[in-house]
Write a structure and sequence with these properties.
Blueprint lengths: L2 H6 L2 H14 L17 H6 L2 H4 L7 H9 L4 E5 L5 H9 L4 E5 L6 H10 L6 E4 L4 H10 L4 E5 L5 H4 L12 E6 L7 H9 L3 E7 L14 H6 L1 H7 L9 E7 L2
Parallel strand pairs: 1-2, 1-4, 2-3, 4-5
Antiparallel strand pairs: 5-7, 6-7
């Protein structure tokens, strides 16, 4: 049994996980999206509590704050899943429109419900699979400046190609890359955008006690210190990489 599964089999883990779910009130507790209400899908609600803790992809918190400061008119979130970025950025950028593409239609009801309770449903539009045609059409019509946020399990190598989607040369991107699914994925995208974008690469790191939002859940961190760290585990198979690509023109 893998280590994360051993943790999830323990009574202490289940108690602490329930503490997070009910203690948060389905609201992100810390980080750049603190205050965002999330209706998580059943799988995320069981295993990815970093969304509610606000520690999910903590490596990008600084980049997210810089993104917010750029005041984008449109966010195109490809692979929106439960809406952590789509909803969080919609709240932080109250003038922005958000296109949330999610191929798994089972997530759409959670995205739409969360958009309503966060008061952004008039600005956030949920769509299905994002093909090259869909992306070209979106980039040709949305208000600029625009940011593309992409997490599609390796599909980014095929989709994010300026040779087929020319407007990608002039927009900013934040991309989770997946070398475990597509060999050299990170390097391919790095090289592909190097001529038109400033490239920043971020690498995943283990969580530690200082990452836990103790101010929001002080008793949990005190009673279950090791479990508190495990609750932030993002269940990744290998160290994650992300690219922030900022257009030069």
């Amino acid at each position: 049994m893998r280590a994360p599964l051993r943790w999830m089999a323990s009574p202490g883990w289940h108690l602490a996980a329930a503490w997070v779910r009910y203690g948060s009130g389905n609201t992100v507790l810390s980080g750049p999206f603190a205050g965002t209400r999330l209706y998580l899908s059943p799988l995320s609600g069981r295993h990815l509590l970093g969304y509610l803790l606000g520690t999910q992809e903590i490596e990008l918190h600084g980049a997210v704050e810089e993104i917010v400061s750029r005041r984008y008119a449109t966010i195109i979130n490809i692979g929106a899943a439960d809406g952590y970025y789509a909803l969080g950025l919609a709240r932080r950028l109250p003038e922005a429109g958000v296109l949330a593409f999610e191929a798994n239609s089972a997530h759409h009801k959670y995205l739409q419900a969360s958009a309503r309770v966060n008061g952004v449903s008039e600005r956030m539009f949920v769509r299905g699979f994002c093909s090259g045609h869909e992306l070209r059409a979106a980039l040709a019509t949305v208000r600029k400046p625009a940011l593309v946020v992409c997490d599609i399990e390796g599909g980014e190598v095929e989709l994010l190609d300026p040779e087929t989607v020319g407007d990608l040369r002039s927009v900013d991107l934040l991309v989770e890359t997946h070398d475990q699914y597509v060999a050299n994925c990170t390097q391919i995208l790095n090289s592909r955008f190097a001529a038109t974008h400033t490239v920043q690469q971020f690498s995943g790191r283990p969580r530690d006690a200082s990452d836990f939002p103790s101010a929001a859940l002080p008793q949990l961190a005190r009673i279950f210190p090791e479990t508190a760290i495990e609750l932030m585990n993002e269940r990744r198979k290998e160290p994650q990489q992300w690219l922030r690509l900022t257009a030069r023109d």
